[in-house]
Amino acid sequence: MPTVRLIETRRFADERGWFSETYRQDRLAALGIADVFVQDNHSLSRVAGTLRGIHFQAPPRAQAKLVRCLSGRILDVAVDLRRGSPTFARSVAVELSAENGRQLFIPVGFGHALLTLEPDTEVAYKVSDFYAPEQDRGIRWDDPDLAIDWPYDVTALALSPKDAALPWLKDFDSPFGYDGDPLEPFSVS
Questions:
Q1: Active-site annotation holds for 152
Q2: Which of 55, 92, 96, 166 is most buried by its number of CB atoms within 10 A?
Q3: Of 42, 112, 125, 152, which one is the catalytic site residue?
Q4: Which of 14, 189, 176 is nearest to 87 (CA)?
Q5: What are the extents of the domains in the chain?
Q6: Phi and psi for 20 in degrees, rounded to 5?
Q7: How confident is the prediction along the chain (189 residues), in pLDDT tens digits per residue?
């Protein structure tokens, strides 16, 4: 199973703007990503400083995600939640924007969070299983054991009541096993 991957999409630009292929199954397969995506999600966050996450779905409805920013900018974060992983509780983060066109692939076994850096930010992501409310889970975004460096005044974040009440990592019994691929700093694919 591949680990978290940063994917750079090619843009073909001219005086009118640009064109980009945002999803190519064969290109992802060449990167070791064999997930079949079955649902597209789209969010709009009106205010900068909106934090969504850290979310995941537990097995048997676990989801891999392919995330991109359609307008505005986000800090996109993936957290290793795989039991026994040498990188358990570590995270990687990258800025995704409409301007840079980057995408982040987040495999099963990782939590996902995003922080909007501009108002009226739209994010779209593909998932590899359908939403299953009974398997919807999360971890607190501000957990000191995760030590995520949020580039924002954390006292001014816009959170849902659900996200504000998520459990701490110390109270979390991970349903994900380690697959042998540690989380590594990523390079653009």
A1: no
A2: 96
A3: 125
A4: 176
A5: 5-134+149-176
A6: -145, 140
A7: 568 999 999 999 999 999 999 999 999 999 999 999 999 999 999 999 999 999 999 999 999 999 999 999 999 999 999 999 999 999 999 999 999 999 999 999 999 999 999 999 999 999 999 999 999 999 999 999 999 999 988 889 999 999 999 999 999 999 999 999 999 886 555
DSSP conformation letters of 21-61: ----HHHHHHTT--PPP-EEEEEEE-STTBEEEEEEE-TTS
What backbone torsions phi and psi does residue 104 show, to the nearest 5 degrees?
A: -120, 125
Q: Catalytic: 178?
A: no
Q: Which of 42, 55, 112, 131 is catalytic?
A: 55
Instruction: Please name the residues in contact with 35: beta carbons below 8 A apart, sequence gap of 6 or more.
Output: 28, 64, 66, 107, 128
pTM of the model: 0.94
Contacts of 43 (CB under 8 A, 6+ apart): 52, 122, 123, 124
The region that residue 29 occupies, defined by phi over 0 for left and psi between -120 and 50 for alpha, beta otherwise, is alpha
